[in-house]
Design goal:
heterodimer, A: 327 residues, alpha+beta, Phosphoribosyl-aminoimidazole Synthetase, Chain A, domain 2, 7-stranded mixed beta sheet, 11 helices, 34% helix, B: 201 residues, alpha/beta, Translation Initiation Factor IF3, Hypothetical Protein Ychn, Chain: A, 2 domains, 4-stranded mixed beta sheet, 6 helices, 23% strand, elongated
């Protein structure tokens, strides 16, 4: 669902019960909910599932699990256990379902967590994901809010998965041509999360359905802070621009654009294609991390060899929260 | 005669796929009906990327997109057989550059010749409809190439410069393109098939 629809629905709910154990709940929406057990430990809860984004069932399973685990990492947590959520038409055959689950389990295993069980529903279209439980120290969790003027903004995966998945669906691209993108989506955000914690990041979230700009906007408080990003520093998966220029923009990108109307200032030289890419909904996108510029070196040094990261912008003081995109 | 593609109620990216199918059948003019702004924008952009002009009109939340191939005839029927290639009335000269040098043998001489060739082409009255750059030819359009001024001049005079995206990826030069538009095999093939005359350098 788009951010506007979701907000309307949540507004209809009765206010959540207030307990001091709830560190992050419905009242303070974030990547995952956090429930404090004691002074040292808090549980992190999240749930995510979706329809196949690639044809290969094993890789779909991996991507769905990496995407679900990402919310734990975005809070600075460590995944402990996971439960499968499966909607599946039996006509597709049990071998395919087994492959999806194998992909999911492999990703959970790589995260150092275990799959404990799950639930299946017969459905017309396959859907797969997981509910994940993690652990975090209440004093060291990473939330969306907390960035300050002068902080650098870092992104840890390229953009373009929504556009490229649309192109795959349209037959403009084959799955082989999307190799780098598929691998990017299947990769865990664990290393990026550990580096953010090690470097003392001030805020963190992951880029998923609301696109880069939608999730970046959620990092801004109601007043006092804005962010400027440079379009030339935004990393893209191969062929994203080409496919965007051929009209492969998913409907979610338009919803995201409408939701952020009036909150984004583009440099006049920027074309429609580049703008749309910044609204593109991502599957298993990277982390967005805010940290003081003098901590960037520590962040870089904490990442393993080969792990990509990109400094894409900077926060600055401003009365109203907006995102500026410079050329 | 004009083909109508009714893409109302179809999820993204189906309206674009249906538009592409119609253009591939050789339709010179077609009307696409869609019922949401996403489909309107995507089909418009796709048609433009295929060298078509698009006019949009809105009526009761429904969009009519009138798509016409640039330089296409006023009246042209859609070919019924998919194998039949389109036959545009206007001359469509295509120049294909598959290398960054002109001719084989002396490479340095080949570079000088290629630059001279593009400069001369840019000044010529008989300018082509499109330039297609692939393999090492894409290097003519990246930052630092001495052929950029000529390519930009050609582009400013209405010549479409298509640069192969796969090739740019191969050379790691995707973010260094400084002239023309990044293209793909579908469009390159389309260009060569509809060309009335193509010259490979």
């Amino acid at each position: 669902m788009g951010p506007e629809d979701l907000r309307k629905v949540l507004r209809l709910l009765p206010p959540g019960e207030l307990r001091e154990e709830i560190l992050v709940g419905l009242d303070t929406p974030d990547d995952a909910a956090v429930y404090r057990l004691d002074g040292e430990r808090a549980l992190v809860h999240t749930l995510d599932f979706f329809t196949p984004i690639v044809d290969d069932p094993y890789r779909f399973g991996r991507i769905a699990a990496a995407n679900a685990l990402s919310d734990i990492y975005a809070m600075g947590g460590t995944p402990l256990s996971a439960m499968n959520i499966v909607c599946f038409p039996c006509s597709l055959g049990m071998d395919m379902l087994a492959e999806i689950l194998r992909g999911g389990h492999d990703a959970v295993h790589e995260a150092g967590a275990v799959v404990l069980g799950g639930h299946t529903v017969d459905d017309d279209e396959p859907k797969y994901g997981l509910a994940v439980t993690g652990m975090v120290h209440p004093g060291r969790m990473l939330t969306r809010k907390g960035a300050r003027p002068g902080d650098a903004l870092v992104l840890t995966k390229p953009l373009g998965t929504g556009i490229l998945a649309t192109a795959l669906k349209a037959g403009f691209l084959s799955e082989e041509e999307m190799e780098e993108t598929v691998e990017g989506m299947a990769a865990l955000n664990r290393e990026a999360s550990l580096a953010a914690l090690a470097a003392g990041a001030r805020a963190c979230t992951d880029v998923t359905g609301f696109g880069l700009l939608g999730h970046l906007f959620e990092m801004l408080p109601e007043q006092g802070l804005a962010c400027e990003i440079s379009i030339s520093s935004i990393p893209l998966y191969p062929r994203t621009q080409e496919m965007a220029a051929m009209g492969m923009i998913p409907a979610g990108a338009h919803r995201n654009r409408d939701f952020l109307a009036g909150r984004v200032e583009f440099d006049v030289s920027m074309g429609e294609v580049d703008r749309d890419i910044l609204y593109d909904p991502q599957t298993s996108g990277g982390l967005l991390v805010a940290l003081p510029p003098d901590k960037l070196e520590e962040f870089r040094a904490s990442l393993p060899e080969g792990q990509r990261w990109f400094r894409i912008g900077e926060f600055f003081a401003r009365s109203s929260p907006i995102i500026k995109i410079s050329a | 005669m004009e083909e109508v593609v009714d893409a109302r109620g179809l999820p993204c990216p189906t309206p674009v796929v249906k538009t592409r199918e119609a253009l591939q059948r050789g339709c010179q003019r077609l009307e696409v009906l869609v019922d949401n702004p996403t489909a309107r924008d995507n089909v418009t952009r796709f048609a433009a990327s295929q060298g078509c002009s698009v006019e949009v009109s809105e009526e009761d939340g429904m969009f009519h997109l009138y798509i016409m191939r640039e330089g296409g005839p006023e009246e042209a029927a859609c070919a019924t057989a998919t194998a039949e290639s389109p036959s545009p009335s206007g001359e469509k000269r295509v120049v294909v550059l598959s290398s960054d040098v002109m001719g084989r043998g002396e490479e340095e001489l080949g570079r000088i010749l290629m630059k001279a060739f593009l400069n001369t082409l840019a000044e010529s009255e008989r300018r082509p409809w499109r330039l297609v750059l692939f393999n090492r030819g894409v290097l003519l359009a990246v930052e630092g190439a001495d052929t950029l001024p000529a390519l930009k001049e050609l582009a400013s005079r209405g010549v479409e410069v298509l640069v192969c995206g796969t090739c740019l990826d191969y050379f790691g030069a995707k973010d260094k393109v400084a002239a023309g538009t990044v293209s793909n095999m579908f469009e390159i093939l389309e260009t060569m098939l509809v060309a009335s005359n193509s010259v490979t350098v």
